[in-house]
Amino acid sequence: MNRADRRKEKKAKPGYMKISPEQRKRNMEKHGITEQDLTREYIKGYEAGRDNTASFFMRTVYAAMALAMKRELGFGRERTLRVIYAADKIIVDELTTDAIVRRVSHECGIDLYFKEKEEEGELFEIID
């Protein structure tokens, strides 16, 4: 690789990639950033993202349940809230998702089989 090729390659890289990993590590140490700091911040960010995702997902599920109860069963505010509170209690009381899914299968006769993206059709299937 000649000099012109090296210059072209260096310009093609984003700014943070223009220095070697060793240089990057020295720069972090120069500014008082350690491997433990990076690991701690990574874990903190991962946990915050996971918590936000769970909260967003649960709000979506509860909102969909409320609309389904209103549209399909004619539930009003009080009955809808009773069902949502009961569902929340089940989620908190059961130890695992598998335990809840097994209980739904046993008590309701519904097998909640979640399909892959490529599969078509209903999200769950009913046990005969």
Commentary on this structure:
There is one protein chain. This protein is mainly alpha-helical and 128 residues long. The chain has 5 helices and 2 strands; from the N terminus they run αααααββ. It has helices at residues 3-12, 21-30, 35-73, 77-93, 97-108; strands at residues 110-111, 125-126. The chain has a two-stranded antiparallel ribbon. The longest helix is centred in the middle third of the chain and has 39 residues, at 35-73. The model has no long low-confidence stretch (mean pLDDT 82).
What is the topological layout?
Elements: H1 3-12, H2 21-30, H3 35-73, H4 77-93, H5 97-108, E1 110-111, E2 125-126
Antiparallel strand pairs: 1-2
Structural class: mainly alpha
**Distance N terminus to C terminus?**
68 Å
Strand order of the largest sheet: 1-2
> How helical, in percent, are the residues?
55-70%
The unreliable regions are none
Taking the sheet with the most strands, its summary is: 2 strands, antiparallel
Give the percentage of residues in beta strands.
Answer: under 5%
Write the element-wise H/E pattern from the N-terminal end onward: HHHHHEE
Count the beta strands: 2
Summarize the structure.
The protein has 128 residues and is mainly alpha-helical. Helix content is 69%, strand content 3%.
Task: Give the key terms.
single chain; 128 residues; mainly alpha; two-stranded antiparallel sheet; 5 helices; 2 strands
